[in-house]
């Protein structure tokens, strides 16, 4: 539940950025949730639309009287209007009326409505909220080159294994994403035998991970 005392004010709007001034950051938080870079904001305008933005950075301004204000810069992702999320960033009316931390169901709309249901391939969750599942367009995902990068021990191999397990339906016992794969083909060069244990399946599907 959002606290009643919210003291945020939009002080400038750009096509790719919204600048917000906050008197007291502690009064702007949702209970039990830390506000940080990557958190989501909801900004209401005069047309009953909600701009969803993601926090890019924080800074502090001090006026001549020594009063401190927190300044947040956020990147607009899109508009929720008529219960639908539409990607855009420059259509919010000026001045916006109200700034609050975004609600969970609003953040879900950003991801759930970005891809049509029949095209969804879901293998991950939002890092800041595991209740929010992230889907990609399966057809586009499997028809392009992708790269999974990260430092040693960050989980690259586990991510690859998770994607491939979901493709063939190992975790769900059947391939529920078959329509999104468009007859995709995958070859694994498992030089260090990292993936063999991730593909223990019954005899209905066969995998040869030897190179």
Structural description of this entry:
Helices cover 15% and strands 33% of the residues. Strand 1 and strand 2 form a beta hairpin. The longest helix is centred in the last third of the chain and has 13 residues, at 156-168. Strands 1, 2, 3, 4, 5, 6 and 7 form a seven-stranded antiparallel β-sheet that branches. The protein has a two-stranded antiparallel ribbon with strand order 8-9. The mean pLDDT is 76. The chain is an alpha+beta fold and 211 residues long. The radius of gyration is 22 Å and the shape is elongated. The chain is built from four helices and nine strands; from the N terminus they run βββββββαββααα.
Low-confidence stretches: none
In total, how many beta strands?
9
The secondary structure category is: alpha+beta
- What order do the SSEs take from the amino end to the carboxyl end, as H and E? EEEEEEEHEEHHH
Mean pLDDT: 76
Largest beta-sheet details: 7 strands, antiparallel
N- and C-termini, Cα separation: 54 Å
Please bin the fraction of helical residues: 10-25%
Beta-strand share of residues: 25-35%
Radius of gyration: 22 Å
> Can you tell me the overall shape?
elongated
What is the number of helical segments per DSSP (H or I, 4+ residues)?
A: 4
